[in-house]
Amino acid sequence: MSEGGLTLTKAPVVEPPKPRRFRVTWPVLLSAFGALVVLLSVTRLVTGATDLTSAGAVNAAVALAVPIGLAGLGGLWSERAGVVNIGLEGMMVLGTWCGAWGALHFGNPWAGVLAGAIGGALGGLLHAIATVTFGVDHIISGVAINILGVGVTEFLSKITFARMPGGGDSQSPPVPKPGQVSVPGLGDGLAALESGHWFLVSDLAGIVRGLLTNVSLFTVLAIALVPLSYYVLWRTAFGLRLRSCGERPVAAESLGVNVYSYKYAAVLVSGALAGLGGAFLSLVAATAYREGQTGGRGFIGLAAMIFGNWRPGGLAAGATLFGYTDALQLRRGGESVHALLLVVAILVAAAAVYQLVVQRRTRAAVISGIAAVAVFVVFALTTTVPSEFTSVAPHITTLLVLSLAAQRLRPPAADGVPYRRGQAK
Predict the structure, then answer these.
(1) Which of 73, 270, 293, 367 could bond to 78 as cystine, CB 3.0-4.6 Å?
(2) Can you give the pTM of this predicted structure?
(3) Three-class DSSP category at 150
(4) What is the pLDDT of residue 331?
(5) Which of 372, 352, 370, 371 is nearest to 362 (CA)?
(6) Which DSSP state fits 411?
């Protein structure tokens, strides 16, 4: 461009450098797991909190993570199809009652597992009818199912369990439990290694022993559902069509996909998985059904799903995190949770370095660094954690992790968006 004999050139636009994308691969996952084990081992040596990597703590963490993971997996199926499922808690409540009833009525714990899945699926069917067919707001429908689940199970308990020997208005008689399985030949040898309290060796022995010995068959089934869900949703045509209903339902309909059918299928599976989580609570985690047994785990499952960025692997990690902190507060609560503060301080400091060097987010790095210093100061100035704090430690951990992960979250594009057939025309 020329003006008055002068040639003006437009300065090139310099775009700010984009943050590097971090890909999660198997070598990265194995390296992260190894680094975490080393960190826990060092923390155990420094603090003397032996339960950080003990077989009992690991076994309890897995058992506590299973119902949360199943609820979160149910939420994943539903929301990947575009239906928000706040009613997971109510579906879990139905699963706890139906699981205990089925096991008692048929005298077989696996009949209870099936009954729990059916009970949760019935709650999912009600949610699908309300949201998909009649277009009811997803949140309102979910809250209604949560209320309905509690009321229905209270009524059913009074007309069934209260008339059974050992039962009552709010609990069932003792129920038969699924069997347990252990890898043969590992128990004694790993126990000997764990009791030596050696650096890293004893910690690995405790973790492996907790994962491979005295594990409920129901737990094995629940863990298998995670890779199965990944395969179905990301490696099959059915899963592709289902996920398209949660991303671009109008485009899916224009290509011949029956959006209503896939939404129904997803919400039914969602309810069945939540029901399995409830059945786990009454058949494995306890000896009988009790009123209020879920304890908000349906909502925690939703938090685990969000933490996992609507992916099965991340969801499993979130459920394991909550289960692990819950297990620590149940075993030598004050001592174990106090040692966990050092682990949290180091992890938050590492997150600050990652945000500064890789993500180039200076503000987020500074905030994380201040949080890491604050947690370390609390650890250094105290010797234990009050019992009032240990009981809420899992919830605080979940909130902390969610707040740190909020920047990378991406829900399905049409999650919770009302959809009516024929919008493509």
Answers:
(1) 270
(2) 0.90
(3) helix
(4) 75
(5) 352
(6) -
